[in-house]
Amino acid sequence: MSLAFSLAIISCEKDNRAAPKSVLKGRIVYDGQTVGVRSNGVQLELWQRGYQLFTKIPVYVNHDGTFAASLFDGNYKLVRLRGNGPWVNNTDTIDVELRGTKELEVPVRPYFVFKNDTYAKGEGKVSATFTLQKVEAAGVLERVNLYIGTTMILDPNNNAANVQQLAAATDLTKPITLTATLSAALAGRDYVYARIGVKTSGVGEMLFGAPQKIQLK
Question: CB count, 10 Å around CB of 144?
């Protein structure tokens, strides 16, 4: 049998392989609570041995800290990428044995977390009040933000209005209030979404609270 013919058979066997039917789904958590991130900004990696290779499978984390991947049954290693998330680096692997559907919690240690966040509307304005709790001693606050938009996908790249407060003006021992001014187009809507975020100095990704729907009318 010629080499070309052999390669053609192998290619056909791979192409004809049934689509994966098993699902690995889960969430990124700290202290039992899901950690919010930038949409499509944070990535996990799954690794599996097979076909004489160690194959990498990227898994993107949703804005609400959840993730899902369609996979074949097998044994995988899940990795939290260094420098890819608003938390302390932890590159320890998590062994995953997948048979059907499996739910998984991936623990992380953020630098800061939000507590007791509340939201209020005013005349052409939306405010968020919250406490910022420092979790990791090495964390240095850069800023906090309030993002406003028409969907739940809110971050520095996806917003219609935002306001920020730098670390120099922020007292972590007291509640923080951020107030965003709405454009006429936003103020004329029935509702908007609001989301708070915190940026740690030297860390690429921000940590976010859960998006909140604010009824304006």
Answer: 24
CA angle 162, 28, 80 (to 5 degrees): 105
Q: What is the dotted CATH code of the domain comprising 112-215?
A: 2.60.40.2060
CA distance 58 to 55: 10
Radius of gyration in angstroms for the set of CA atoms belonging to the chain, rounded to a whole number: 22
Residue found under tokens 């930038």: 38
What CATH number belongs to 3-107?
A: 2.60.40.1120
How many CA atoms, within 13 angstroms, populate the side-chain half-sphere of residue 165? Answer: 20
| Count helices and strands in the chain by DSSP H and E runs | 2, 16
Distance between CA atoms of residues 163 and 117, nearest Å: 16
pLDDT at 45 over 90: yes
Phi, psi of 114 (to 5 degrees): -90, 145
What is the reported pLDDT for 17?
61
Domain edges within the chain: 3-107, 112-215
Alpha carbons 160 and 163: distance in angstroms, whole number: 11
List, for residues 169-208, the tens digit of each pLDDT value. Answer: 999 999 999 999 999 999 999 999 999 999 999 999 999 9
